[in-house]
Amino acid sequence: MKNLGKKERALIKHVEQLDEADTLKITAELLDAGMEPLYLLDLINEGMKRVGQRYESKEYFIADLIMAGLIFKQVLELEQMLAHFNVRHSNKIGKVLLGTVKGDIHDIGKDIFRGMMEANGFEVIDVGVDVPKELFIKKFKEYKPDILGLSGVLTNTVETMKEIVDAFVGAEIRSEIKIIAGGNHLTEKVCEFIGADSFANDAPAGVKVCRAWMSCAERRVTGDD
Questions:
Q1: Phi, psi of 80 (to 5 degrees)
Q2: pLDDT for 34-70, tens place per residue?
Q3: Exposed end of the chain (fewer CB within 10 Å): N or C?
């Protein structure tokens, strides 16, 4: 991110350093000064990316990732954020079924994606972690979501994600839903193997894909070009 102000740079740094108090303090100040909440979330996410990089370099540990996730949740729960998104998104733009697939109990990436999706006006049905294909299909039939989000941190979740997509094909409901897979290890080739419609390595990228899908669906409904 370029051309950032002093407070914006400080916010990213405090997130990276897992400084909860100063992160929340500067966040509130920036919101009070009129910063657009979605732009503020981009700054928070930049700090989260740096936390992830420190984890990959073994400077941070799982506990640090959990702390970063908790800080992110607290930002979303600030009064200014709740007021903005509750007013702006009283009419939801789409429904998402979300879960970490069977064999993986990591929920930080999933929870961040959920928070950003809700902030962008989506209704999210979060079915938790270690979710088997049978539960995804059951919840799909119950809630009829527009999008299925499959989260997985471990590399062996690729096979599990493929099994879930195949189960939707076998149940003859695959054509009724868009599927996005999320995880740092995913690539275009892996996405193709899984059979998902798209993939994302971080939450903002996933939100962008889902918003584009709903925009296309709305144009088809209204008949706009």
A1: -60, -40
A2: 998 888 988 998 898 899 889 889 999 888 988 998 8
A3: C
Tokens of 72: 């992110």
Q: How many domains does the chain have?
A: 2
State the pLDDT at residue 135. 97
The answer to whether the beta carbons of residues 119 and 85 sit under 8 Å apart is yes
Residue-number span of the structural domain to which 177 is assigned: 91-222
Q: Are 20 and 74 in contact (CB under 8 A)?
A: yes
Q: Which amino acid is at 33?
A: A
Cα dihedral 81, 84, 89, 93, rounded to 10, equals -60
Using alpha carbons only, give the angle 51, 53, 59 rounded to the nearest 5 degrees.
Answer: 80
pLDDT tens readout for residues 97-153: 999 999 998 888 898 899 889 888 899 999 999 999 999 999 999 999 999 999 998
Domain boundary among 87, 118, 149: 87
| The predicted structure's pLDDT at residue 143 | 96
Domain co-membership, 75 together with 147: no
How many beta carbons lie within 10 A of that of residue 157, not counting itself? 24
